[in-house]
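Summary for the steering committee. One of the milestones for this cycle was to obtain a three-dimensional model of the protein with adenosine-5'-triphosphate bound, which we needed before selecting residues for the alanine scan. The sequence and ligand used are listed below.
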Amino acid sequence: MDTIKSLVQPLVGGYGNSSIVDGMKLVVLGGTVETARRVSSSAWSHFVNSFFLTAHFSEEDVPYDWLMLWLSRRPEWQRSREFETTTRASGPGGPSATNPNYSEEDRDWDAWEAVVDQSFPTPYDEADSAEDPEGKPKTRIVFQPTYDTTHTIYYRGHWLRVRRGKRQDTGCEMLSISVVARSNAILKQLVLQAKKEYEAESVHRIQIYFADIHGSWRWTDSRHKRPLSSIVLNQGVKESLVDDTKDFLRSEKWYADRGIPFRRGYLLHGVPGSGKSSLIHALAGQLGLDIYVVSLSASWISDNTLMTLMGRVPARCVLLLEDLDAAFVRSTTREEGDEDGEGEDGENGGSGGAGGNDSFPGFTSGFWSGNSSSSGGGFSSSYGYSSSRSRRSNRYRSDGLSDMNTLSLSGLLNALDGVAASEGRLLFATTNHLERLDPALSRPGRMDVWVEFRNASQWQAEALFRNFFPCEEEEEVVSSSSSEDGDIDIEKNLSVLQSVPSTPTRDGGRDQTRRFVPSSAMMRDLSVSSTASERRPLPAPASTSSLWSLSTSIASSASSLLSGYSSPISAASPAMSTPPLPSSPSTAPISQNPLSSGFGSTNTAYLPPPPVNPTKPKPLDKKTLAVLAKKFADGVPEEEFSVASLQGYLLKHKAQPEAAANSIEAWVKSEKEMKERLQREKEAREVREKALREKRRKEAQEKDKVKKEKEKKEKELETVKALLAEKEKEEELEKMRQQLKDKEEELRKKEEDRKKKEEGIEDDPKDESKSEEESKADSDEEETKEETKDEKKE
Ligand SMILES: Nc1ncnc2c1ncn2[C@@H]1O[C@H](COP(=O)(O)OP(=O)(O)OP(=O)(O)O)[C@@H](O)[C@H]1O
């Protein structure tokens, strides 16, 4: 106490009364106690931490996803008093995925859902259960550790301390797991188990990563592998691609021995909605590789970001560069400025819904928004390819955002095969406009294999039909399909798959580009593809894709505006599609939809698509299927419609193969009519625009002419004015000269008078005074003369 008193005394001086001193004593005492507490707590935590082993996982790296998935499955979260609830978690088992492994946790959630459904029934529940209780899309919810909270989990005889936080500098999420142990074996075990569980989940799935603005790869989605058999391409194409990619992945040593960079590029080009993205998806699944997508038209992409991204691509993966032609020339719509007038928008727009199953709301990339891309036609621009920066810099998009894309051709080329580029990846690039690519970009070594995608052939149409509808005797249909298809023009089919034009073989070694030859094996494989339809999960257009619904209904509203034309786009319900074409496209979806009587039912553009008929189609016998498929194919004109649009049509007749085959001709007719109508409208618009441009040009010319005439007249006026002024001056001068003359005359007269007078004075002295007057007059005269001279000078 005395010590405290001695400390406080100097502060309060001699004036401090006892209450102030006591107060100060308390402050000092409190401070001392708090400091002691902090020091001891910090010492204790140091002491405890010295026994802990801690592993840190950054969200930028894959183990973070393993651990998050593992954590989300821990039963501890069921009991935890603080947790984060999410519907979007990392990894294949994330809730956004439809997990094939039905876990305890899922069961628990389902039980709760049932209780809630019972307590609070909604019209949506009724509608759902009435239709398809099994097919009801489930959004899984999981619990995860909260930020900046330490959770304790028991794992294999150890207590783990789990902490999730963010790095101060980058804002990147970090997961720290600490354990009291002598060696880090338990942590290794944990990571390996998480990895194993993650991989077990991903056997049937592929992971999709998107490039983000910081130059990192961000896990975006996990998708079911798409069976290759679901991709309908002309014979031999996909099989050859699979062979080529597999061969490449096996040949690392071969490449290393010859000093050739271990990279391979595939360029998929052709019409929209022909299966480019779908093929890449299916191939990645077949090869067990994840997909890393970078959209070169992203506003933030720059040489540096791309270089960083390429350096961070894992060794074995599919690297997808979308819309390669749009990398340097950006436009707000895919058809903006398209001068070729390919008219694909009409077709694909009209067939809305085809790509619906591929869409992934929230991401604008064409890889996911199958329908959005196919309906929009090809990304195009009237400018063509240019490596110049000036054309794209400082442009402003229609949404008012500054276009910051500063990617250059050399930057892209460096990123693809520069020193920092990763090896072992399969590079896939897609474009709708091959002609716009710079040759440097598509040369061998960068793009080793080119695959052309065309509109659907009749053979493809038939295969697509067979894929759609189940058959009673699958195996028999396989063989019959092969024999029926025996007369396929293989030469023609294979013409779409090219090796790159020039193939430099380095050091005389193996030719790097592949030349594909059809084999019977390919044909067998293809037959299997047509029969695998039953196993293939059919896309669920109504429930899974908001893009699908929006584009379809917008198309329907648009078509209904076009003077009552009945577009098949909007003939949405398969249940009502037995007749060739529905007569009232815009109203049918409303009346069919059980939810349509509710909120917003008057606005068809925002209505969900009508529910599809839940009744599964009866499997057809092989003969009927063959007949219907043939009929369907015969009704489809060769290479006129994209596969996506045919798929869209079949989706509308999902449960009615007969109707699909019978109405195809009517559909084709109406589609053609609509295409023609759109074409006509486009032409009319172009003519109008041309006339408008012409009018504006003439107006401008007229204005220019008037302006020039005005300028000319003004000039003339100026000249006249100047002349006038000159004339006036001259007149003035003349006047003055006249005055001068008059005065001179006067003076002369006066002089004469004076002389006469002088002569007279000599005779008469009386005249003296008179002569004085005269001399005065003379001096006046002289003055006047002087003044006149001055004026004249002026
Ligand atoms: N050859 C095909 N086989 C099977 N389905 C196809 C085929 N072509 C297109 N589709 C279907 O059409 C939709 C759109 O296909 P996809 O996105 O693969 O076309 P794309 O050629 O990549 O189009 P875009 O160039 O516009 O991106 C998908 O739902 C896909 O299932």
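Key point for the committee: Residues 230-233, 272-278, 354-355, 357-358, 366, 370, 373-374, 432, 453, 643-644, 647 surround adenosine-5'-triphosphate (CB under 6 Å).
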